[in-house]
Amino acid sequence: MANNTHGALLKRGIESTVAQNLVESGYTIEKLQYKTLEDLIALGIPEVQSKKLLDGRPPIPDDTFAQVLHDSKHVCCVCREASRGIIIHHIEEWAISRSHDYDNLVVLCSLHHDEAHTKRYLTIVLSSDKIRFAREKWYAQVKAHDTAVITGHPIPEFDNQEISEVEVSDVEQFINSLKSNTIIRLKEGKYNLSDIAKYDSNPNVRWRTVFNGYEPHIENIKNLKIVGEGRVEILINPSYAWVLRFNNSSNIEITNITAGHITPGSCTGGVFMFNECHRIKISNCDLYGCGTYGLTFNKSSNGTINKTIVRECTYGIAQFFNSSKIIFRDCSFLDCQEFDLLTILEYCEDISFLTCNFRNNYISWDERFFIETDRTCKDIVIEYSEIKNNKVLNWSNEPEVILTRHNDYSNNNFQHPEDQWYFDDEN
User: Fold this and answer.
1) What is the percent of the chain with per-residue pLDDT over 90, rounded to a whole number?
2) What pLDDT does 28 receive?
3) What string of DSSP letters covers 13-81?
4) Cα 340 to Cα 150, 241, 367, distances in angstroms
């Protein structure tokens, strides 16, 4: 019964050491809910937590509660101090979100829980972005640790470096801030990377020569988030350069960024490339040509691309090589052209497009495809998407590799594929 009461208190937002003291004093949820706010505070329950007991909110569901504690190893995702009491915190506060969803919950200690509710100079001390980023960083380390234990591989050390948050307003500050464990907030404006080509003060950024200029390679970074505040555009001059190329990096997020090349016309460099990168998240971005492709993934995994536009690219939409678990949701692919629109080759797996929009794309070559793939790939999925007004003659060279369901096709040059799925919908 004591353990049940302790868990029930945690599910209602009570800090673990406070919950333990109440259990040891013989209190149950029912007894506590009959008390007044003043009575609860007198028992040593902080006012914010006392109000949670009395506001009638439902407890966090058992499965979600257990998963959050398991994934965090029962410690605060910010400080990882096992000696501190913990609280299950709603990232978007319950009064607004009414959400006990897994993604809205995180384990914090009482110190960092207070910081999440404290304003200093009109700014939250521990912002929701910072909490989410710290959580993802910690969860990734826990998973790597547990996998190493199971497989017998060397156990990685935990990275306890704190996340720093910086605000930048010019391209030099931006390049200098590309480091591990950093949230970069770009003020509204244009950032032309070519203005400081060959800038060598940041060891994580190397400039490589391309035919008509220089290309930045961002390397060996963990836990980086780039956020545009307002309309932010990242540009580069050379048509042979990628705008942002990441190598050997993990836990990379890019949000609210427009990116492309200065000079319209023919390019041989794309917009975003990820080479040997893992845990990638791109949200609310606008990636435009003349970049060859909006996105390329090579030997990369666990990517999520949400509400992002890829438009007017000159070779195609995206490329994937030996990559897995890349999912696009609510994305639009518009007015791209020339070669295969989606190139998915060399042992790719779990490449998915859900509720996406493919419109007005064009291929002038008869032997090219909407999707080029090969039989080393599997689980390529397009589902609940609109595919309209595409002047493309061929759907795919390997249509049996592609799983489709509930798509809306109209006014395309290719023969629309029949739905094929793992299972019969009637079962």
Assistant:
1) 47
2) 82
3) T--HHHHHHHHHTT--HHHHHTS-HHHHHHTT--HHHHHHHHS-PPPPPHHHHHHHHHHHTTS-TTT--
4) 41, 20, 9
CA distances, 203 to each of 120, 137, 208 (Å) = 33, 22, 13
Q: Which helix (H) or strand (E) holds 12?
A: none
pLDDT digits (tens, 9 = 90+) for 33-45: 788 888 888 888 8
**C-alpha closest to that of 307 among 333, 284, 286, 326:** 284
Residues 53 and 170 in one domain: no
Report which of 408, 307, 414, 290 is spatially closest to residue 362, judged by C-alpha positions.
Answer: 414
Across the range 177-191, mean pLDDT stands at: 94
Kindly report the pTM of this predicted structure.
0.71
**Cα end-to-end distance, the chain, whole Å:** 42
Query: Is the per-residue pLDDT at 427 higher than 50?
Result: no
Structure confidence by residue, pLDDT tens digits, 114-127: 888 776 544 556 78
Looking at the structure, do residues 39 and 6 belong to the same domain, yes or no?
yes
CA 198 to chain centroid, in Å, comes to: 30
Q: Which residue has the tokens 């935990």?
A: 158
Q: Which of 120, 146, 172 finishes a domain? A: 146
Residues 178 and 142 in one domain: no
**231: CATH:** 2.160.20.10
* Segments forming the whole domain that contains residue 208: 164-410
Residue 214 has pLDDT above 60, yes or no: yes
Same domain, yes or no: 315 and 378: yes
Pairing relation of β-strands 386-388 and 408-410?
A: parallel
